[in-house]
Amino acid sequence: MPVTSAGLLLFRERPGLEVFVAHMGGPFWARKQAGAWSIPKGEYTDGEAPLAAAQREFAEEIGVRPPDADYLDLGDFRYSSGKLVRVFAGRAPGFDVAEVRSNTFELEWPPRSGRRQEFPEVDEARWMPVAEARELLVAGQRPALDALVTALGAVSG
Fold this sequence. Notes:
Elements: E1 4-13, E2 17-24, E3 37-38, E4 41-43, H1 50-62, E5 72-78, E6 84-91, E7 104-108, E8 116-120, E9 122-129, H2 130-136, H3 142-156
Parallel strand pairs: 1-6
Antiparallel strand pairs: 1-2, 1-4, 2-3, 2-9, 5-6, 7-8
């Protein structure tokens, strides 16, 4: 059974379409940009509703509750590893975060040093145009941007 995650893709129009995405924390991602950004998301179990999991994970990774919105289920997106990510999109024109306060994870760093350090899961989050997000998001999440654009076209068209 594949690992399943759920995430929130917040969006706004200003005048172009922007999405709110997060830069992954930790030493591996510290100096990377392309492929080092993600929709705020995390794993959930069979007993948890995917939207509730996405909202919980957003709060854990960003440090604030996600905005109240009518979340649209964009569907499941499969990574090349087989992992599935369920993405929910929400219109959030007034949402902003002054400071990201992410939960942390522990890692031996530097490798084979025997020293354990804590790092934030997310070290930055911000709004960016969809075209920029397409370049920076991990490859498995890029199709969610296409699904968002398609869904918004169907809603407004």
